[in-house]
Amino acid sequence: MSDIRICFVGDSLVAGVGDRTALGWPGRLAARAQAVGWPLTWYNLGIRRETSADIAARWEAECARRLPAGVAAGVVFAFGANDTVLEDGRPRVEPEKSVANLVAFLDTAADRGWHRLVVSPPPNIDPEHNARLAELDARFAAVCAAADVGYLRALEPLSADVVWQREIAAGDGYHPDGAAYERYADLLSPGWNHWFTTAFGVV
Asked: What burial class does residue 82 get, using C-beta atoms within 10 Å of its C-beta: 0-12 exposed, 13-18 middle, 19+ buried?
């Protein structure tokens, strides 16, 4: 295929906030794909502080502008950290609604003929927040398994990663610098490569 286009949809961790190289993990995965000759055009559609409810209001229209008919198209979804932030003692988005949003995203993308991949949120510095993320992570994994969609898990591995933990502690507790985003991309690379080559038929 000569025209593969992929949108990365999500929050500040998709946008690569904190990374002084301005690549984040999507930019690193895209750069690696282009380095081996895969014909990829990629779009970063991450917006800071957005929950799945915010993403629901915009993602399809934004992707449709970038994934026109006649191209090989994919969408990578990554969200959840903002859904599980507490406001007034409750998550910004209740877990059941986060799950329902993911189901709707995957169904809509399938109806559009867009290949789908989901990336789990990474850990942050707050153990209680991470416990809520772990519960959502398990539910997202179940949704993706039922839909036969790839789900790349990062929460547990990055919880034990020295570089990730050091950089989020040095930052705002959520967003690392480039070395940790590099570790995130390394962790995702095997699953990303499998999805990309399988979905788009490249080698």
From this structure: buried
